[in-house]
Automatic annotation (TrEMBL):
The keyword Transport applies. The chain crosses the membrane at residues 36-57. Coiled coil: none annotated. Signal peptide: none annotated. Belongs to the GSP K family. SUPFAM superfamilies: GspK insert domain-like. GO terms for cellular component: plasma membrane. Residues 127-220 form the T2SS protein K first SAM-like domain. Pfam families: T2SSK_1st. The keyword Protein transport applies. Its main location: membrane. This is Type II secretion system protein K.
Amino acid sequence: MGDRKATKRLRGASVSARRWVGRDVAFVGPSKTRGAALLLVMWLVALLTALIGAFALTARTENLQGRVQVRGLVAHNAARAGVEYALTRVAMSDQKLQWLPDGRPNRWRYGDAQLEIKIVDENGKVDLNQADAQLLTALLQATGKMEQSEAARLAGAIIDWRDADTLTQPAGGAEDADYASAGRPYGAKDAEFESVAELQQVLGITPELYARIEPLVTVYSGRTRPEQAFAAKEVLDAMGLNGADLVRQRERNQPGSQLQGAGAGGVGGGLVGERSGTYSIESRARLADGRESVLRVVVRAGGGAVPGMPYTPLRWEEGASTR
């Protein structure tokens, strides 16, 4: 009898234990599942937030890049319009409206762009293929701030580059052996300069010196001496004239006026000089937001290779700045 009662008690305890265990499982299991699901949802929300943020940043960046490109294109087109406008003004028959190709700044408004345009006739520059040693030496002295002997040696190197012989100039120069000694993989060209940029290959011409002399020289005029009416101060000085006085005198006279006779600097015939029809033009366009575009070109007026183009481009450099 006692054993039966004990057995019943054990069975009852077992059933109770199973009930409590069942309750425990029923209570703990769903709670853990809900916690894991919540954590997963939070991770998904964080991931989506990051993706949306990255997409928004990319879209904003692309929008800003697009605006920069569009405004840059507007500035570039304005600068190019300045080149064509300069060619129109320099060719005007009305001398009061005509722009003089002597390097003075001219201002013009095109749309929302303010332009500063400078135009120089190539006849006003020193021709690298035609100038003699004396003129080249004087120009190098005026621009390079160097001793006469060093300037003469560099002038000789320029002449040795373009002449057909292998003889060094009397005042010094540079032929093939000199280039080899300097470790250059080339020698003197022994042919004419095809471009002003070629001057950088001449032995002794440093980047700093080239930057100063480049605006003053040409390969397009074919003249042994520059045209005084369009020459810069340094070129006039190299020609033995008082460059500063002549430039001031030129600036005091507006387009259409003439200086009669020979002035203090010895310039006769007034402001009107022999034009080549080939011009260096710097057209700088600035938009209201500060963005700029600059074109530096050398063009020959007249029909171009492309039908309808009013000029033939000989050199074309462009640049831009953004804000």
